[in-house]
Amino acid sequence: MADDSPELEREELEKFVQQYMELDRRTQRPQGIYSILSASREKKYQDTLQYFLDPRKSHGFRYTILSQFFECIDFYEFNLSGQHIEIEDEVWIAGDEGEGRIDLIIAGGSALGDHPRWAVFLELKVGAEEGTEQTRKYAEADTWDFSWFDADTIEVEKLESTKYVYLKREAADSPTESIFEAVSWADLAESFEAGTQASLFEYPNRSVIQFTDFIQSLKETEGMDSAIDEDELNERLNVYFEHSDLIQQVEQANSQFESDFDDVSTYLQDNWIDKLVSKYNIEKSGWTTSVSSNPEYQKLFPAYWDQDPLNSTSTIQLFYRHSPTTELLRNQTLRFRLRLPPARNVHTETQDSGRSFNTLFAEKCLSTYNDRTHDALTKIGVDDIRLGSASALVVKDYPLDPNNLVGSYFDQLDTAVSEFCGPHSELPIVMNDVFEEVYEDVFDEDPIGEFLGGLSKRE
């Protein structure tokens, strides 16, 4: 920290913290993320709704939100997890040269079918009113420009079941076309809360925060929740005015600390490879490293685990990752993970074999290779196992020494690499066996090259 850093008055600081925490217990909520994003509110809700409804996205909710949405609109489709589902936005009526474009279409059915079996048509309204005969035009449309495997249209008459939904504000007019069922944003928010509240802790924390913020924004749109409490706000601001000098000192100190942690993060990014190279035969072991400007994505993996089966810009990859982010450094933690990319198309799209790489990889880890994998992870003593998610498969946190943050990071990275990747670890062997079998099953060919085993140390 700089020599001219301010001296903080301890008694005043303690008084300020006590006052503010008493106010904070009343839960003054900051504005939602939509308040700082551009584009119309309708477009924001459309994009967010599409994201959370899609079970293939990386939010981790899988089919939970989609199932709850279908319950809210009284559309019941069993065994969603066993079906192929596609969701597209801004879908045009096939051959329509006018304004025939609906906000969202959700379609599903057999992955082997040449046409969806069912579809839900959604028109979303927040502030705008229905266009002239808009819903009538949608209701009468026979064919839509919607991709389903090799086909680029869906025909309404081929669908076994359909649902037309007009999502609107409570006070807005109902759709002019009777086939569209009116559902309010308030109904949707209440349904989402009621259906997910008991199980939210089962899902990734970041996704829960995003989804909760989405529901809160829906409530504000409907006037279900006040965005501001004037009395509480004034009371908070009075605390600020009373301690404004102290707050400025704290802000200045925090700014310097943030800069310090950024410096440490950058230093670790720039030097971790050299530290490992001095101890491990990375190249001779057939392994490789990858440094990103984002501290989150520092990778180490066998080169054999980086394949290009489809000759595309996105490759199949299985890798170990550590992340010297400022947040983890503040928490005095080195986090080491074994990961599969959860959002790459080559990983998640269904291939000619009828399976996707990530789905089959997760299944193999929990079935055929479950005992071997469990034994290997037990020896390492990992903190979290998510083999069924095909994302962060395995996680272990290593504590750092606050008195020697940089040195202890390199020491713990060496420990993590030895435990997860070293010649005495069974994990690389087991994971490679899964990798090879899944690769052959999904892409109907062997991976290119050769796996040389764990990462050996220099003598």
From TrEMBL:
One Pfam family matching this protein: PDDEXK_4
InterPro entries (alphabetical): PDDEXK_4
Highest taxon listed in the record's lineage: Archaea
Name of the protein in its database record: PD-(D/E)XK nuclease superfamily protein
Organism, as annotated: Halorubrum californiense DSM 19288
